[in-house]
Fold these 2 entries.
Entry 1:
Amino acid sequence: MVHGVDLHGGQARWYRNRWVRSPEASAHLGASPVPHEDGGWYPGSGNTNVFAHAGRILAVTEGSLPYELTGDLDTVATRNFGGPLPGGINAHPKFDPSTGEMHVMSYGFDNPALRYHVIDPAGELASTVDIDLPAPVMLHDMGLTASTVVLFDLPVLFDLELALQGVSLPFRWRPDNGARVGLLPRTGTASDVLWIDVEPCFVYHPLNAFDDGDRVTIDLVVHDHAFADGGEPLSNRPRLERWTIDPQARKVLTETIDDRGTEFPRADERLTGRRHRYGYTIGMSSSRDLGALGDDPRTAVRKHDLVSGTTVEVDLGAGRIASEMVFVPTDSAAGEDDGWLMGYVYDAARDASDLVIIDAHDFGRPVATVHLPARVPQGFHGNWIPDSTLA
């Protein structure tokens, strides 16, 4: 299901939710299936991310094709960008603000285990690089700089036995498989990937990456493990780190930015692939673990100044659980933190959710709150989609 709020002229005009019309959802609703283009491992439910490209709103689950949605959130069809996309795409495309291209990965259960796709500004598949790996790994996200794609070959492996048992996320933690990060030139081929070993860990979400001379710097949330201890996909205290990848020395230098439990990193996407100063994450208030909700659940929105090395946070209050926050600039020429953070916050006292808006520059209590009539489940990812980006 996809949820949306329409903002216009300083007012919230509507809130609505709609089923993404996967075959399963269509059958449940007694409706005819929507047209399906060729591609993907399976149809998917469109439940992981929603974004816009080439004038279309797209909802995606990794391993499947994205579903095109109307501005009213009705489902049109799946799209393969002119294909083929045999593995679909993963949930986190990167959009180059200079070229208008969409860069995205897919992963599979045999070789080529990874595919790197570039979708042009018109929404057509422009190129694909097939990459073999020693084992089938989960690759939820990637990094992108002006020159380089950052790949992760980390020890969360597809497990056929779990898949045959019907487990929805059939992955296991296998640290003996090793861990490494790869640098692929954006104009290169699979033979150009430079792999560098790192300590076993898992990364769901980078914040941003950029070129720094001959090195690549990437800020990202690092989990000590994932899908360990009975299959739990998260570790209790993921931390925000900066990795400086040195291809000449074949080393990765790590620096902890914030060691408190945190996730869902975001930045000003006008700076995707370029040096950034600010980043935003969601975490537990004070220093509690992500798994330590207990009887007093509460979350904080954090702003990280990566130049001064400081972090400030807004505690959203008891019983209020935030989803991912998205940065929205005041206009196209605005400064890096001149804008707002927007996201859904579940309020246990109302058993419903709010759309919360925080001034990203004068970081403090929300400047506006839209009380929604329903609970928005603690989902995954969303985005601000201005009308001007749609066809």
Note: The radius of gyration is 20 Å.
Entry 2:
Amino acid sequence: MKKEKTTDIAANLIKDGDTIYLDSGSTCSILFKKILGKKITIYTSNTDIFSVSGEILAEVIILGGKFNPMNSSLSGSLTENLLKNLYFNKSFLGANGIDEKLGVTTPTIEEANKKRLVEEHSDQVYLVCDSSKFHNLSNVKAFDLKDVAIVSDKTDDKISEKVSLIVK
């Protein structure tokens, strides 16, 4: 239920004509299915999209890279080289941990590097995650919270002091 609410909010932020990056992870996979009927361009490294079929209005571009079956993601130097030449007006990123002091964290260096590049190449960055990620840490810092908004199922006082928190 948390992820459904979170992805409903995020889907409403995406408008026809947008060029977005959609990250890997279970919440972003749910969001992907909700936005396929929009006239948008989606760049992604999320391999869960291979299970989607049917009518799709969105243009979907899959970035290459090394496959990580633990999070259904492509990452590594190939992915990073592609991202260096791409720009997005909105990006929707997942996180394994969000800490008000340490920022966004993820399990691997490759995932952290990918998220950092996307954050640097996006006009607007949204972290799409349920509240269970708040005050958790993973192994590697991806970036600070300063230039992102968090889309989540509920508010958190400490996190909302550092970042815009979108909850409805």
Note: The mean pLDDT is 92.
